[in-house]
Amino acid sequence: MFEGFEGKGLPAAFMSAGTSSFTEFLREVRPEMLPGHGLPAQGIAAEHLSPDATTIVALTFPGGVLIAGDRRATQGNVIANRDMEKVYRTDEFSAVAIAGSAGFGIELARLYQVELEHYEKMEGRSLSLEGKANKLAQMVRGHLGLAMQGFVVVPLFVGFDENEGKGRVFSYDATGGRYEEQRYYSIGSGSVFAKGSIKKLYREDLGETDAVKVALESLYDAADDDSATGGPDLHRKIFPLVDVITEDGHRRLPADDVARLATEVVQGRAAHPDGPTAPLA
User: Fold this and answer.
1) pLDDT given at position 280
2) I need a labelling partner for 124 at 20 to 30 A (CA). Which of 115, 166, 209, 236 fits?
3) Left (φ > 0), alpha (ψ -120 to 50) or beta: where does 129 sit?
């Protein structure tokens, strides 16, 4: 990662305890490796340069939280990628997903992974969930210049709070504003449709499997009304990514399990194209 220092000795920053923030360390040592470094100051046609990542959903259930994302990335009216990964494990008890400018979103997610790992190594302990959420807000705020040029990246962060014993969901705006959401949330181009779908299906007592099905139903509804969101692709075997976080830690739901549940959703839509309805009681 730090090629170019061969035979020159390491910079002084490598030889001191320094900051517990990897982003600040990188800004001092190799600022050109930060996302967006060197872009021209004037506005540019962002839509012609970077595909956009689309819909992400998250919801809590007793004992945990899950986050799921469709796989499509679009560039204008064209499907740029059908199997993009938008959901990332950030540490043992948290995960982040991105919507917006795909290239910079991936860079942000990966840098955030290193940020948390670097902090833990420097401080000998991990950040609290609140601290992790605040750290991500600082990093999003640091990308405001990119957002002003049209490269907007908006993350959705989830984690299991070991102190409170429950899952929590945090959303952000392009300026780094951080907001804790209650029960469920969605971001991206299909978020309006996804949130409407979750609203009618969500219950406080959802089990983990039912919560996953609610997420898949909501992504299907988003894909049904938003051309930028990709639904389950049974022919290509491309299905949403689903990460689950409980007191036992983070895990990616196996592809076979997601495929089985997504197939059930698709088959259910054959009989009821608009999906399941909430009982009026």
Assistant:
1) 79
2) 166
3) alpha
For 194-242, the DSSP string reads HHHHHHHH--TT--HHHHHHHHHHHHHHHHHH-TTS---BTTTTB--EE
Residue 180's nearest CA partner among 118, 129, 248, 216 is 129
Residue with tokens 């950030």: 90
171 within 8 A of 156, measured Cβ to Cβ = yes
Q: What is the value of pTM for the model shown? A: 0.84
The 3-class SS string of 78-90 reads EEEECCCCCEEEE
Q: What are phi and psi of 37, to 5 degrees?
A: -65, 135
Asked if 54 is an active-site residue, the reply is yes
- Which element (helix H / strand E) includes 191? helix 191-201
237: left (phi over 0), alpha (psi -120 to 50) or beta: left
Record the tokens describing residue 69, joined without a space.
């994302």
Q: How far is CA 177 from the centre of its chain?
A: 16
Q: Rounded mean pLDDT of the chain?
A: 87
Mean pLDDT across 188-217: 96
Token pair, residue 112, equals: 């955030």
- Residue the block writes with tokens 């139903």: 217
Residue type, 74: T
19 pLDDT tier (thresholds 50, 70, 90): low
Dihedral sign from CA coordinates of 223, 228, 233, 237: negative
| CB-based contacts of 125, cutoff 8 Å, min separation 6 | none
Which one of the listed residues 19, 23, 54, 90 is annotated catalytic?
54
CA distances from 230 to 147, 189, 209, 240, 249 (A): 24, 11, 22, 9, 28
Question: What's the mean pLDDT in 225-236?
Answer: 94
